[in-house]
TrEMBL record:
Signal sequence annotation: none
Residue spans crossing the bilayer: 21-47, 53-74, 95-119, 125-144, 151-171, 212-233
Subcellular location as annotated: Cell membrane
Superkingdom: Bacteria
Organism annotation: Microbacterium phycohabitans
UniProt-recorded name of the protein: Cytochrome c oxidase assembly protein
Pfam families for this protein: Caa3_CtaG (PF09678)
Keywords linked to the UniProt accession: Cell membrane, Membrane, Transmembrane, Transmembrane helix
InterPro entries: Caa3_assmbl_CtaG-rel (IPR019108)
Bilayer topology term: Multi-pass membrane protein
Principal cellular location given in the protein's record: membrane
């Protein structure tokens, strides 16, 4: 469905006589949907219900890597302008489209691996399968607005987001470290970890899960920092152009108003 919707959007844009770069389509399919298919249909998807490290790696990639790859295809640019503007102007989009909320959401998701909830989500076949849809949507709800709202947020707001993204680098590592260093099974699921000869022991399985969460979280934060840097640069250019367009009289009035504490 996502492929068909994207191709339909590209066709509609080109029918209007507008250019659509091929690199965006390649990004959407090669960096977004292809990794999603590999994750869900490959080893991680098959053994997600049995192995803790496969489950945690799958969730981390679905919330980080897949949304970032899909966002590279700029799917929001294919949405009709009136609909896109209303979507970006909505309160929900503005809330989720900043690094402040992303930091809290990602930390909350990873902290679930430290509780028995992770075991329940993993062993319940229906819930475990539904995560393959829900988790990428959560990631997209944060990444897509973050890329599109650069012209809406001020430079100061983006600077705060940038600083919080650095804080997220530290916060995201905590759950993985705790899983790696803990010598008790945190999800309380005494599964038969030796059902296959090459499977790790239950505790080693948890340690591997912690290692993967730690690595993926730290590595995946880099694209977010890049996105925020690009937004910061664009916002700075827009604000600088706004000042350049002012006449000397308008600039003097604005300066005097600022010194008086007026907006």
């Amino acid at each position: 469905m996502a492929s068909l919707a994207y191709l339909f959007g590209v066709r509609r844009v080109r029918r209007r006589g507008e250019a659509w770069p091929l690199r965006r389509s390649i990004g959407f399919f090669v960096l977004g949907l292809l990794p999603y298919a590999v994750i869900e249909l490959g080893f991680l998807g098959v053994y997600s219900g049995q192995l803790r490290w496969a489950f945690s790696t799958r969730i981390a990639l679905l919330i980080f890597a897949v949304p970032a790859g899909i966002a590279a295809g700029r799917p929001l640019d294919l949405v009709p302008s009136p609909v896109r503007e209303r979507l970006l102007a909505s309160r929900v989009t503005r809330v989720f489209g900043n690094a402040m909320v992303a930091t809290v959401v990602i930390a909350a998701v990873f902290c679930l691996f430290l509780t028995p909830v992770a075991g329940i989500l993993r062993v319940d076949a229906v819930v475990e399968a539904s995560l393959g849809v829900v988790v990428p949507l959560v990631g997209l709800a944060m990444v897509l607005p973050m890329m599109a709202l650069g012209a809406v947020h001020t430079g100061t707001f983006i600077a705060i987001e940038f600083l919080l993204a650095f804080v997220e680098l530290l916060i995201d590592s905590v759950p993985g470290l705790l899983m790696r260093l803990n010598d008790s099974v945190l999800d309380l699921i005494p599964d038969a970890a030796q059902a296959v000869s090459w499977w790790p022991s239950t505790l080693h399985d948890q340690h591997l899960a912690g290692d993967m969460i730690w690595f993926i979280a730290e590595f995946a934060d880099v694209p977010i920092l890049v996105i925020l840097m690009i937004r910061w640069m664009r916002s700075d250019r827009v604000e600088a152009k706004g000042f350049d367009d002012l006449t000397d009289e308008e600039y003097d009035r604005m300066t005097r108003a600022h010194l008086r504490g007026e907006r």
